[in-house]
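Final report, results section. Input specification for complex C-07:
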Amino acid sequence: AQSVAQPEDQVNVAEGNPLTVKCTYSVSGNPYLFWYVQYPNRGLQFLLKYITGDNLVKGSYGFEAEFNKSQTSFHLKKPSALVSDSALYFCAVRDASSGTYKYIFGTGTRLKVLA
Amino acid sequence: GAGVSQSPRYKVAKRGQDVALRCDPISGHVSLFWYQQALGQGPEFLTYFQNEAQLDKSGLPSDRFFAERPEGSVSTLKIQRTQQEDSAVYLCASSRSSGEETQYFGPGTRLLVL
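Structure output:
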């Protein structure tokens, strides 16, 4: 069965500092991995995805994530946090070998960037 | 261009009532998904359509939940005989094709069952 874990409910970081939001996954087949962001009173927005190729994926708003197969992780990173990055972040996985389009989302990590 | 829209944005229902939630995907998008998001949780997959075909309904929690997309565009999620545990935000998402993988989410419908 597929699963995603976001071990931190909340991450606090000072503006200008690097940020990391953690995600680990479990699938029996080939993982496709995603990060989405949810701002207050707005729908989820796509940030980036790993399908194949380079393990380091760059996405919107200066975010990037690294696919680590051996550690089954897909942590979201940004070199310098902005106050406007404060939001709820969701990691998601789909098992591309399963033949289904069932996406599994984590429980979310609230990022708070302090001025 | 217009994004994914959902209506109503808020719905209050008495226990036992039937409700219908509408999703208008981005024009031309082949794939459509419904999710249920409980308070403090991530979205949980309910069902998936490719055009008008419902290819996966494994996430529907009971036979009170029914979804359709008869013409391959607008979709309706219907919940019969609502229960308090159905209270959640229902999210709709669409993507260009099954191979596109990037989903575009609507703002959601917040359902409260009293």
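Chain B has a mean pLDDT of 95. Chain B touches chain A at residues 3-4, 31, 33, 35, 40-45, 48, 50, 55-56, 58-59, 91, 93, 98, 101-108 (CB under 8 Å). This concludes the modelling results for the funded period.
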